[in-house]
Amino acid sequence: MPHVEEAVQLPRDFEGFGEAGHDCQWPNNARIAISFILNYEEGGERSWYDGDDISEPYLWEKGSSGGIKPGGRYLNAEQDFEYGSRVGCWRIFRLMKEFGWNMTLWAIAKAMERNPEFAKACVREGHEMGVHGLRWLEFWDASVDEDKKYIKDSFEALEQATGERPVGFYFGRGTPNTHALVPIVLKEMGQKLLYSSECYNDDVPYWVDLPWEANIPAEEREGMLMVPYNYDCNDGKFHMAPGFMTSAGQTYESYLKSTFDMLYREGGRMMNIPMHSRIVGKAGRAEALRNFMKYISEKEGVWVATRRDIAKHYREKFPYKPGSRAGGSA
Question: Within a domain: residue 6?
């Protein structure tokens, strides 16, 4: 059973920004901020090679029909992950370079260690490294002390593997306490957290108050900036049910365009495009992704940015103010 540490729990918020909504006032009067995120996990997943009792059964090409093969190697699964690190990541890298855009990587430290050429190229081109864990494993039932050590080790290992100090995170597989423990751990390490993406509940960034700061003077509180993530535009849905219901890229492309059109019309919003090297990095789906990229490149007022830059803009425009989701005026 997972342990819930009451002292660090963030309250649920069912109201958000309400009827008025919230305009993030993106740079240069852009109508929308676009965040491409590459979940880079290949080499950090479960495998016989790393002492696990199975090869990773989740989010690879055979989907739910792939099955679990305990007690040994399942080369089919292993090699689909290897496709991501050998081919798919570079295909996505080239697409970003073609359009002159930068992405954020939810980077597994072990995966980055095993593909140093890709890690070096991403940092060189200005892509952001965000923490996604030491390996791509569940740690749902970790104790508070184990959780804090895993967080610390993840930040340090990713910096060591890439040469870049991460300022944001999305573990996705943590305990009920992980998201709130990160700013505590980083403070103990003498580092600052720029943002968390451990949330799925909005289309715009927002501030949360940290419960352990309640008893210190308001001017000393830091809060935590949330830059929401999503599942609905995630290419992982090619291998989920219900998902895009086909392995072809056309449904994916259509859904991305529909999401963009709505958010673009509303204005002041943010759109996430979560990607995986072994999924949308396949040629047919990458072509669908490129069609979407071309579509938005032809629109006025589109800001494609890393989450680091989105967070920096929001902090400057809407600095933290205790008790306010939108912060104060800059």
Answer: no
Q: Which of 57, 31, 60 is nearest to 265 (CA)?
A: 31
Question: What's 206's DSSP letter?
Answer: E
Of 55, 101, 110, the closest CA to residue 80 belongs to: 55
Asked if residue 5 is part of any domain, the answer here is: no
pTM metric for this prediction: 0.95
> Phi and psi for 317 in degrees, rounded to 5?
-80, -35
- Judged by average pLDDT, the poorest of 34-38, 63-67, 297-301, 322-326 is 63-67
The answer to the question of residue 15 being in a domain is: no
Number of structural domains the chain divides into = 1
Among 253, 233, 230, 254, residue whose Cα is nearest residue 243: 233
Measured distance CA(95)–CA(202) in Å, rounded: 28
- pLDDT tens profile 132-168: 999 999 888 899 999 999 999 999 999 999 999 999 9
CA quadruple 132, 136, 137, 142: dihedral, nearest 10: -20
